Amino acid sequence: MNTVPLFIDGKFVSSKADQFIDVTNPANNEVIARAPCATDDEMQQAIASAKSAFADWREVPVPERARLMMRYQHLLKQHHDEIAEILAKETGKTFADAKGDVWRGIEVVEQAANIPALMMGETVENVARGIDTSSYIQPLGVCAGITPFNFPAMIPLWMFPLAIACGNTFVLKPSEQDPLTPTRLAELFEEAGCPKGVLNVVHGGKDQVNTLLTHDDIKAVSFVGSVPVGQHIYKTATDHLKRAQCFAGAKNHSVIMPDANKQQVINNLVGASVGAAGQRCMAISVAVFVGDSKQWIDELASEIAKVKPGLWNDEKAGFGPLISPQAKARVLSLIQSGKDQGANCIVDGSDFSVAGYEQGNWVGPTVFTDVKPDMDIYTQEIFGPVLCCVCVDTLEEAIALVNRNPFGNGTSIFTANGAAARKYQHEVEVGQVGVNVPIPVPLPFFSFTGWKNSFYGDLHAYGKQAVRFYTETKTVTSRWFEDDIPSGPNLTINLG
């Protein structure tokens, strides 16, 4: 049995833990590895290593840090398909989806290689007579990241490359459900030339997370995951006077206007709703049909019903299994609640399996109509391949519906009318808006900007906001007196 190692002080080490968590293949639930719950001593070692390394790493010139990221992104590209295969086998994602996961992470590393420009401060000469003021961007210290199962390459790469490029050191606690991918990311980072202690990787559950949240030497915490855990992490971290950015749940709506391109709407909503088995915080889980666009629901449902789950290396598979039996049970429970509460299930994937892999966590594509805002399938984040269809008469009603929802991660509108698109993007209370784009995840030179209960904190992931999150600003006001300038024919100024 493959026991996942810890990465502490530049070495991969076997944990002395007496508790382990099984890592399973979601397609058949066979155990493929086990992740240790790092001992308290190992947690302390990882944090101490990061603290010790910070003293030297913060003094490494910014261009050298950028070169480390250049070497790292080169290695990630070289090993792109290998990482994607590891990822697909432990998450159940299709190979195409896994490759997308890896690539979106690589894009953030490319942005980290641009760190010299992002670390620039500001200067004003003569803020008063003979007085100048400059600001400098400096690292915080030891930062921590706690990442989820659904993007085991992309989300760790959202965090530690930018934090480290800013001059910090980092302790990563990846999801215990798929730790093999983050371990490979750490191996390649070491190969790229990461000094020992700059990145440390630990494994475990709540106890290990709480150690990171309460330790005096951890200065900032980044998290992506569920709402209850996100709230706990944000409250605990801030109670211990740390910076925190916590990305949590979502309920993303796509508004379909009757003047939209019908075929584009159908093509886009199929993948946006059931792709990745719905296990992504930017999945479209509610389609809001305005006016006569409701006539397209049956055709959309017919196309969604054609998408079949399958194994990671099945090129015909539209998506893979859910991550765990517990996740499957929760999704099936919500599907049943929709039926019980009066929604019309026009595509039912609750009794789906793949031949030879009947023990896997399979749920087929599912579509509900006649969904009301008080139903569980609407109020809760299903995190499965389930689309809820809601009908309204006007764009104003659609905007009001979306704005009443407590989440604000992503939304989209499909329309051929620029005024309608402009009204929607201006009035909707959601952080990331797509116009004729179903899943509007920004590229890394912007930031990932969820709102409301989808995010707890002030500064978001990647882009300029992440640099601000992982740094502090020092402002220097200086004055030099011209009377102090030496004079004389034998004056020599030694600049050595």
Q: Structural class of the helices, strands and pairings?
A: alpha/beta
- Rg, alpha carbons: 25 Å
Count of extended strands = 22
Shape: globular
| Contiguous runs where pLDDT drops below 50 for at least 5 residues | none
Query: Given the structure, what is the number of helices?
Result: 16
pLDDT averaged residue by residue: 96
- In the sheet with the most strands, the strands line up as 14-15-16-13-12-18-19
Cα(first) to Cα(last) distance is 59 Å
Assess the beta-strand content as a share of residues.
15-25%
| Sheet with the most strands, sense and barrel status | 7 strands, mixed
Percent range of helical residues: 25-40%
Description:
The protein has 496 residues and is an alpha/beta fold. The protein has helices at 40-57, 62-78, 80-91, 95-112, 115-118, 154-165, 180-191, 206-214, 227-239, 262-274, 297-305, 325-340, 376-379, 395-404, 418-427, 463-469, and strands at 6-8, 11-13, 20-24, 31-36, 122-128, 131-139, 142-146, 169-173, 199-201, 218-224, 243-247, 252-256, 284-290, 344-347, 366-369, 386-392, 407-408, 410-414, 432-435, 451-452, 455-456, 471-479. The strands form six sheets. The protein has a seven-stranded mixed sheet, sandwiched between helices. Strands 9-8-7-10-11-21 form a six-stranded mixed sheet, sandwiched between helices. β7, α6 (154-165) and β8 form a beta-alpha-beta unit. It is globular. The N and C termini lie far apart (59 Å). The model has no long low-confidence stretch (mean pLDDT 96). This is methylmalonate-semialdehyde dehydrogenase (CoA acylating).
